[in-house]
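Please fill in the sequence for the structure shown.

STRUCTURE ENCODING:
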């Protein structure tokens, strides 16, 4: 990872931490988020995955508002993507447990941009 990539990674981490803290108070059932990125294809490869406790809580949440929150936090650090609809993905602990026996690393690999 290049030095500039490390700086960008740290800025993304801080921006997403802010978004996560807000989401924890605004969206019932929201638990955590993570991001995946290939810096050789940045920013198009950036994907943020928001995880809820259950599929029911995920279905009830305002996904567009949460996506906008994340986009705004990234825009504040000058990160903008061409296709914002691909930026944020949603999942649940319940689905991971049922389909991947709780193995998040395996499950998140399906979100990786190639």
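FILLED IN BY: designer on duty
SEQUENCE:
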């Amino acid at each position: 990872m290049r030095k500039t990539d490390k700086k960008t990674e740290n800025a993304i981490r801080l921006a997403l931490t802010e978004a996560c803290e807000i989401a924890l108070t605004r969206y019932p059932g929201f638990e955590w988020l993570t991001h995946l990125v290939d810096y050789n294809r940045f920013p198009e490869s950036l994907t943020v995955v928001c995880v809820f406790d259950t599929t029911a809580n995920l279905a009830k949440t305002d996904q567009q508002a949460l996506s906008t929150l994340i986009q705004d936090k990234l825009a504040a650090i000058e990160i903008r993507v061409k296709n914002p609809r691909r930026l944020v993905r949603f999942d649940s602990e319940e689905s991971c447990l049922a389909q991947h026996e709780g193995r998040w690393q395996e499950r998140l690999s399906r979100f990786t941009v190639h």
